[in-house]
Write a structure and sequence with these properties.
homodimer; Fumarylacetoacetate hydrolase, domain 2; 5-stranded mixed β-sheet; 11 helices
Chain lengths: 470, 470
């Protein structure tokens, strides 16, 4: 199957915004992701913008200035631009592919090298295109429901092996995308500090559990898929239509307290071990921008079952997967003081997910569950076949048994107070411009003072603080 | 510890609304629950009302008519009345106990036998107090997050015994309230038809799973606790303050497809087996109205651990529990055609929950997870020590092995298409007026036609359709 490429994917396209043309820029004119921004210190409400280089296109301000309305034929673009006068992407997401594509096309035309319509407007730098450094970003959407999957067979196998060496994967794994509901209220924007949670945990050698700050705090590198148009309750989404219900992708850090998780998670799954915080990146890269990076779905090894019909994507077999590289960087307080750069702990690719974004979405709705615009589907920890592809400390340190050496002589088994965790992602393919997802950051704060606990060091668990599945 | 009783709990109180004084009325003047109503066929937006007998007090309309403002001293009641001009209880819930209590006290004064302030208003029956039969009820709140617990030790033991005869309860059960996140989008108002979900299931004797309509559809009788004022992310709620964060209780039917659940639920818990629908009753009975029915927490048997400090309610030991009876009635199509009344399948009491409402809430926030006004906490299936106390068919039929005989010669292992499930609940205690929670209803529709399946009969699973935990 061919990709849905058009002239917006032309690698030769350049913007008159010079920073967008730098080869390592996440936001070239081929990307144009959506996010929710607010001018720092200004009284205006947050609204939807488009990232271009180091600036933000204020879509609604451009719309009011007649920069979209001037293109008389394009009612869809105008409709989408009007939906950008909101503090979330939800209304834009609800409009679906047509209006979104029309808006991105017109925004691209405005930003293209040689176009001077924006620059001919008075005070355009402040009014229409604030600098990113002068803006605050919020959560991109009001996330009604957050679902977390377990789509990396490498992650599931690595974690399963810690507990069931003979049967790392359970029998259902290759038949359906395992998932569970996450907590929506505690999803926070990138940059929000993350307070170390307290909770019950029980050391393997203890007679009883005790309550206190988590000693085994971890991150999880995930791809986040934001839902576009939803479905009515009771009306499944056919697998062939699943892609039309996806808006785009972002970065997700599914913070996890492994000691709490180990004690609480049977029989109904993770709960307080995850619900204290989930971080999400500000910019959502649209499915259209990702089109050049669509690749075949994960090649199922011989002997693996074919997907059942409601998950069968053979109609788009050549492009059901996604080639996007996710990196995890760590910056400890000591590294920060020494002026060291964050240290990369892992790098993995979405193409290694056993289940595709479309399969996750179609499975989710297959029982009639209604998805709503702006709902978030997390891939689950994104790991790959090699050690350097492992997307959480639980895997990288084998449950804390093998600490990771950091520059400057430090090591980590799990996260310490003051540690900053930075996710990045980008797409690269020969013949196409590189596009990026930006960053998702979070720094660990000490546990709540009422817990009566001091700071926690670099997470050196006792034998009893061994890890837990997921 | 003493209960917080006042003159609003006086059993001798009567209303001038005659229907409220009937001995079996759910909504006497001692109750005054909140719900969201709309006059049938009228153009007005839904808003918050108070149930009294067979009528609804339109709180905001009374407020505009000066019926609360006239009571000059009571700014709190006026604030709460103003928050009733909304299509959900959320803003009222956020205000907390003070304004809610003040409003209920004034509403009670308006409705008390002898008071004629309402009846002296022009057109009061239509404007200020529509009949319930002329109103449509919506979901009581915008439920941001729905959490489902597993607080009945009888349910957990009965279900666990089906799988682990030697160890029905897992070691964590008596140390912390087991819970998991539910799906918020698919929570529906009482009366909404419930479409039988499709999904993957695998018979024990099958080599592979298959996709189709659930054959093992069940209900779960639950108490729902609606959150009042929330907490900030990262700031736990102390157990001693937990009751101040509860708004009131309602009925919840946590519909469950046991065959889907059995196949999907390891290792991360229930997902599509539950997310197709959850029904909630329209009226929320406040914690204040429940005060006469507060009882000691579940008496932990000798040998059970004492709750850890963050769950220790010994400060309110005499009233941490709740005496409320929940009933489940079934009406099959044949019973309906024959003019038979719904048949009661079970009856259980909240006082038999191992964990109290306050413990569920404090545990939920103990890791810093932020609860928001209007969030819903489900108790989990409410079962008791006797066979007739079992709150789902999974328990009542021992996983489908022992069908239940119904009047008219029918039987059920699980739910058939057209079956209507009706939950009711009420509180009774010597010396106090009986109060009720009303009803929560739902009728099973056949599976989605795209699933290519005809109707499903009364759920007679094969040996392979054996049940699953939770």
């Amino acid at each position: 199957m061919t990709l849905r490429l058009d002239d917006t994917h032309d690698a030769a396209l350049r913007s008159w915004v010079a920073s967008a043309n730098a080869p390592d820029c996440d936001f070239p004119i081929q990307n144009l992701p959506f996010g929710v921004f607010k001018r720092r210190g200004a009284a205006d409400a947050p609204r939807v913008g488009i990232a271009i280089g180091d600036r933000i296109l204020d879509v609604y301000a451009c719309h009011r200035a007649g920069l979209f309305a001037g293109q008389a034929a394009d009612a869809e673009a105008a409709e989408a631009a009007a939906a950008c006068d909101r503090p979330s992407l939800n209304d834009l997401a609800a409009l679906g592919r047509g209006p979104r594509t029309a808006l991105r096309r017109q925004a691209g035309a405005l930003l293209k090298e040689g176009d001077d319509r924006i620059r001919s407007q008075a005070d355009w730098e402040r009014r229409l295109m604030p600098a990113m450094k002068d803006a605050e970003m919020s959560l991109p959407a009001v996330i009604g429901d957050y679902t977390d999957f377990y789509a990396s067979v490498y992650h599931a196998t690595n974690v399963g092996r810690l507990f069931r060496p003979d049967q790392p994967l359970l029998p259902n794994y290759k038949y359906l995308p395992i998932g569970y509901h996450g907590r929506a209220s505690s999803i926070v924007a990138s940059g929000t500090p993350i307070r170390r949670p307290c909770g019950q945990a029980k050391a393997d050698d203890a007679a009883r559990p005790s309550f206190g700050p988590s000693k085994v705090l971890d991150y999880e590198v995930e791809a986040g898929f934001l839902v576009g148009p939803g479905n009515a309750l009771g009306e499944p989404i056919a697998i062939g239509e699943a892609e039309d219900h996806l808006f785009g992708i972002c970065l997700v850090n599914d913070w996890s307290a492994r000691d709490l998780q180990k004690w609480e998670y049977q029989p109904l799954g993770p709960f307080l071990a995850k619900s204290f915080a989930t971080s999400v990146s500000p910019w959502v890269v649209t499915m259209e921008a990702l089109e050049p990076f669509r690749v075949p779905a994960f090649p199922r090894p011989d002997g693996d079952p074919a997907p059942l019909p409601h998950l069968d994507q053979s109609g788009i077999a050549g492009r059901a997967g996604l080639n996007a590289t996710f990196e995890l960087h760590l910056l400890t307080p000591r590294m920060r003081e020494s002026g060291n750069a964050p240290f990369r702990l892992s790098r993995a690719n979405c193409r290694d997910l056993y289940w595709t974004p479309g399969q996750l979405l179609a499975h989710h709705a297959s029982n009639g569950c209604n998805l709503r615009p702006g709902d978030l589907l997390g891939s689950g920890t994104l790991s790959g076949p090699a050690k350097e592809n492992e997307g959480c400390l639980l895997e990288l340190t084998l449950g804390g048994k093998e600490p990771i050496a950091l520059p400057g002589g430090e090591s980590r088994r799990f996260l310490g107070d003051g540690d900053e965790v930075i996710l990045k992602a980008y797409c690269e393919a020969p013949g196409f411009a590189r596009i990026g997802l930006g960053e998702c950051r979070g720094t660990i704060l000490p546990a709540h003072p009422l817990a009566g606990a001091g700071g926690i060091g670099p997470g050196n668990p006792s034998a009893g603080d061994s890890p837990r599945e997921a």
